[in-house]
Amino acid sequence: MQEFPGVLAEARLWQIVLLSLEVSLSAVALAAAAGLPLGAALAVARFPGRQAVIVLLNAFMGLPPVVVGLAIYLLLSRAGPLGAFGLLFTPGAMVIAQTVLILPIIAALSRQAVEDAWREYEEQLRSLGTRGVQAALTVLWDIRFSLVTVVLAGLGRAAAEVGAVIIVGGNIDGVTRVMTTAIALETSKGDLPLALGLGVVLISVVIIVNAAAFLIKEAAQRRYG
Amino acid sequence: MILPLMLDRVAYREIIKPLTLDIGAGPSTIILGANGAGKSVLMRLMHGLLSPTSGSIFWKERDASRVRRLQAMVFQRPIMLRRSALANVVYALAVAGVPAAEREAMARAALAEVGLSQLAQRPARILSGGEQQRLALARAWALHPEVIFLDEPTASLDPSATREVEAVIRAFDAAGTKVVMATHNLGQARRLGDEVIYLHQGRVLERTSAERFFSQPATAEAAAFIKGELPWV
């Protein structure tokens, strides 16, 4: 049994931390690339059924990770429609599951942020002749500093969840073991000091990432107003 | 020429009562009236931001894209994009379909016109209120519109910024752009207006030369407005 903080010196631990960051940051990058424009489009577009889409999207912010994990598991399993890619129990599968999990969060929150800003910008942009997708992207870019918080909300969800990655990743030592799955495993094994140590590392990493994002955002905001 | 602009029995909800009006090229037109008279709504109807609930609005020019390109509007509170002053003007030119190679030169010329050349690289959102309003004028002016609508452009500015903005407006007027400006400021109407359209509770009560409007208002409402507003001048 390893005692905290001696475990911090172990290379194995840092491998787990690194994989966690890789998986969650990749998922956030993918979800932001798709979710931000999606949210902006939904904020600016007017079509029948729009309100239903918004309600659904907001509801999906609370998707249970295990359910997303199960759905992705079924898609990626050998017999599933995407089984041929052999992604199940790889970090790739974990990225996919987390992307699905946080896409609604990023899309729903950016939809709200763009819609609030749109009230302020609409007349001016229409007067200049900006329409449709261009208007949505203009507002999205203009509120980019506020969107940092939206992306961080997605990152928080990805870094914290265990249900989806444990189902599609399998918590395989050295391959798909991340911080949350390791904590769950060590807790069930009774190695509470190691579990606790991993927990402290996880929270520290999340704080560091958020602090970095905050400082960058503040500096940029001071610069551009 | 996209002017004249014709409004034929145009009404908007309860705010604008059916009115018929034509705005031709030439001397500047001031839309004067108290708060709530319908000035802003009338400007938005003319600019095309609002559609009338009844009646019709048409320009001499039938090509809608030309009409859009040859008219611009500056709002009471300009919305600046979070980018440099220059980039704000370049953006407007890009939206209007100006080829990329010509945008910067045109934008710099517009900034020079309003006296903002030295602030071209400054982020627009951190400019002062008066500078932002002049930037808004440059952004509207960059395409050399035939008509420019100004909705209380100095209502939230201090006297010195107001003077600077008025100087720019006078320069546009002198360059042959038709200025249509809404204001409740009588001093400004006197300084900038050639003709006055007096709006009262959604109706046009008077349309006459500025000089005549101020010396011999034809309606009791206008006379009361001039009298009541004088201490503000």
Topology (SSEs and partners):
The complex is a heterodimer of chains A (225) and B (233).
Chain A: H1 11-44, H2 50-60, H3 65-76, H4 91-128, H5 132-142, H6 144-160, H7 163-169, H8 179-189, H9 192-224
Helix pairs in contact in A: 1-4, 1-5, 1-6, 2-4, 3-4, 3-7, 4-5, 4-6, 4-7, 6-9, 8-9
Chain B: E1 5-12, E2 16-23, E3 29-32, H1 39-47, E4 54-59, H2 64-69, E5 71-74, H3 85-95, H4 100-113, H5 129-141, E6 147-151, H6 159-174, E7 178-183, H7 186-192, E8 195-200, E9 203-209, H8 210-215, H9 220-229
Parallel strand pairs in B: 3-7, 3-8, 5-6, 6-7
Antiparallel strand pairs in B: 1-2, 1-4, 8-9
Helix pairs in contact in B: 3-4, 3-5, 4-5, 5-6
Mass-distribution shape of chain B: globular
Report the sheet with the most strands of chain B, covering strand number, pairing sense and barrel closure: 6 strands, mixed
Number of strands of chain B: 9
What's the CATH superfamily of chain A, by name?
MetI-like
Helix and strand element order of chain A: HHHHHHHHH
Describe the sheet with the most strands of chain A.
none
Treating each run of at least 4 consecutive H or I residues as one helix, how many helices of chain B? Answer: 9
Tell me the radius of gyration of chain B. Answer: 18 Å
From the alpha-carbon coordinates, what is the Rg of chain A to the nearest angstrom? 20 Å
Strand content of chain B: 15-25%
Protein architecture, described:
The complex is a heterodimer of chains A (225) and B (233). By secondary structure, chain A is mainly alpha-helical. Chain A has one domain (21-178): MetI-like (MetI-like fold), CATH 1.10.3720. In chain A, 77% of the residues lie in helices and 0% in strands. Chain A is built from nine helices and no strands. Chain A has helices at residues 11-44, 50-60, 65-76, 91-128, 132-142, 144-160, 163-169, 179-189, 192-224. In chain A, helix 1 crosses helix 5 (132-142) and helix 3 (65-76) runs parallel beside helix 7. Chain A is globular. The mean pLDDT of chain A is 91. Chain B has nine helices and nine strands. Chain B has a domain at 5-77 and 146-232: P-loop containing nucleotide triphosphate hydrolases (Rossmann fold). In chain B, a hairpin with a 2-residue loop joins strand 8 and strand 9 (203-209). Chain B has a six-stranded mixed beta sheet, with helices on both faces. In chain B, strands 2-1-4 form a three-stranded antiparallel beta sheet, covered by helices on one side. The mean pLDDT of chain B is 90. In chain B, 44% of the residues are buried. Chain B has 233 residues and is α/β, with parallel strands linked by helices. Chain B is globular and about 55 Å long. Chain B has helices at 39-47, 64-69, 85-95, 100-113, 129-141, 159-174, 186-192, 210-215, 220-229, and strands at residues 5-12, 16-23, 29-32, 54-59, 71-74, 147-151, 178-183, 195-200, 203-209. In chain B, helix 3 (85-95) packs parallel to helix 5 (129-141) and helix 5 runs parallel beside helix 6 (159-174).
